[in-house]
Amino acid sequence: MNKDIYSYSIDELQSLFGELGLPRFRAQQLFEWLHTHNAISYDQMTNLPKALRQQLSIAFPLSRTTLKEKQTSSDGTRKYLLELSDNELVESVGIPSPPPADKSVPNVSRETFLDDFMPSTPSNDMQRLTVCFSTQVGCGMGCVFCATGQEGLSRNLSAQEIVDQVVTVQQDFGQRVSNLVAMGQGEPFLNYENLMMALRRFNTDKGFQIGARHITVSTCGILQGIQQFTQEPEQFTLAVSLHSAVQVKRNYIMPALASQPLDQLRSVIEEYISKTRRRITFEYLLLQDINDTEEDLLALIEYCKGLLCHINLIPFNETGAALQGSSMDRIKVWLQRLNANNISTTLRHSKGADIAGACGQLKNVSRETF
Ligand code: SAH
Ligand code: SF4
């Protein structure tokens, strides 16, 4: 099979067209359709001759991601169910939000949205549009609190399938995407190469040009992935789902991570911070009596000591699992205590819960349940 047409550089496309006896400017036109206009079908490329479009569609079929369903939340969040060429299903979420709140307000008294821990967009007047995209169909990590984790892994997404999700949301909102979070289905660092290929396109392709610092990857703590990410030249943002600083408890709620222990996780994070000089975000989902006790709080404070980090506390979103989220009173105590210990901490206000589009609620549902 031929190489994916999206991965050809302009020079490679021009030499390919040269070999086929086609004019060089056609290669330029095709390149612009693919990378500036983010075309997902050859039919859209109306300035290319029909015969050439047909030839290309046979030699280089474009990925066939199609929109199957869309749901809109009362808060404006939109959830998309996309069908891939092999009929697998994947979900993505588009989250519009007002410009960042006044940062002078103390953290403890304000809620944050999914992307609030990232730097603000160049123009504060601009409405933000954050896309939460998936990197795998399902997930093999089996975290007990996560709907995706209960399904198991079907397969990795290709770089193009990752890009298609963002194109779909961008086209549906008719607005430029300003922020990206790899927090949909799947574990991004277990699909490292495709993830990085897609991130580079988001960062550099004319149709996106999203600043690296506005692109966040969330990992459950894959050590090798964090080490590789540390070496990347771009300033992508890193978030780590910690959820417990007590080893036995973490093993219970994130069973697949038991072989990647907390002390080693801390070491690779230290390396990441010292090499990149960037702050990392710890995500911490608060589950009643499981990881929200005094012992858990003290362990987290100890774990964060000396680390350039930010904590994002996450209220539990319903998944059907027999688990209970911590009460709002308990969450407020954590916010207050962590901030009092000089650990910058905010509370994530998940959007889209009424359409099961909030963190941890995505799954490969069929039409009947969507
Ligand atoms: N696999 C990656 C990214 C996808 S999950 C990771 O685990 O980080 C994105 C975030 O949603 C993670 O922080 C995850 O722990 C959180 N999450 C999972 N289930 C959740 C739930 N039921 N309620 C709230 N957050 C949840
Ligand atoms: Fe996978 Fe992340 Fe869900 Fe865990 S929380 S099962 S790693 S998607």
Strand-helix topology:
Blueprint: H1 10-19, H2 24-35, H3 50-59, E1 66-72, E2 78-83, E3 89-97, E4 111-112, E5 128-132, E6 136-139, E7 152-156, H4 159-173, E8 179-182, H5 192-204, E9 215-219, H6 223-230, E10 237-241, H7 247-253, H8 262-276, E11 280-286, H9 294-304, E12 309-315, H10 328-340, E13 345-348
Parallel strand pairs: 4-13, 5-8, 8-9, 9-10, 10-11, 11-12, 12-13
Antiparallel strand pairs: 1-2, 2-3, 3-5, 6-7
Helix pairs in contact: 1-2, 4-5, 6-8
The chain binds S-adenosyl-L-homocysteine and iron/sulfur cluster.
Give the overall form.
elongated
Instruction: Please list the strands of the largest sheet in the order they lie side by side.
Output: 1-2-3-5-8-9-10-11-12-13-4
Distance between the termini: 35 Å
Mean pLDDT: 88
What is the makeup of the main sheet? 11 strands, mixed
Number of strands: 13
Bound molecules: S-adenosyl-L-homocysteine, iron/sulfur cluster
Structural class based on helices, strands and sheet pairing: alpha/beta
Q: In which range does the helix fraction lie? A: 25-40%
Order of helices and strands: HHHEEEEEEEHEHEHEHHEHEHE
Question: What portion of residues belong to β-strands?
Answer: 15-25%
Count the helices. How many?
10
Residue windows where pLDDT falls under 50 for at least 5 positions: 102-125, 366-370
